[in-house]
Each structure stands twice: as structure tokens, then as C-alpha cells.
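ok so i was messing around last nite and threw this chain in just to see what happens. nothing serious, just curious
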Amino acid sequence: MATIAAQFKKQRVLCRISQKTLRDKFCASDEDPMHSVAQHRIAIHKAAAMLIENETYEEDGSVLILACHLS
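result:
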């Protein structure tokens, strides 16, 4: 699981994306998933923003980015 942080209304929101999603969507390697996150930062940020705007939060207050959220 890769985790990035977003700022929304002066609050920090953790955005999580699974290794499987990174692998399936971006062909990420198991050894360095954050490299794939960095390469596809714009798509991941767009997906996170959409989930936050739609208030699609997990129980812990984070958002979980799935392959279907990524264009």
C-alpha cells in the first residue's frame, strides 16, 4: 500500500493506493511502488481530489484509490 497526503480545507487527508492497483494500472514494480506513484502523480492526485470532493472516505478518514478511479 502506498500512502500520500493531501490538503483539503486545511486538513490532512491520507490517500491510499494498493500495490495491486499500482501494478494493474501502471505496471508498477513490487520493489519500488513509490516510483510509480511519482511517475503517475497527476492521475493519482486527480483521483484523490475526486474522492475527497465526493466525501468518499474510509472509516479511518482516508480515501482509497481504486483502479476504477484512475483514468
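not much to say yet. Residues 2-69 form a domain with the Double Stranded RNA Binding Domain fold (CATH 3.30.160.140).
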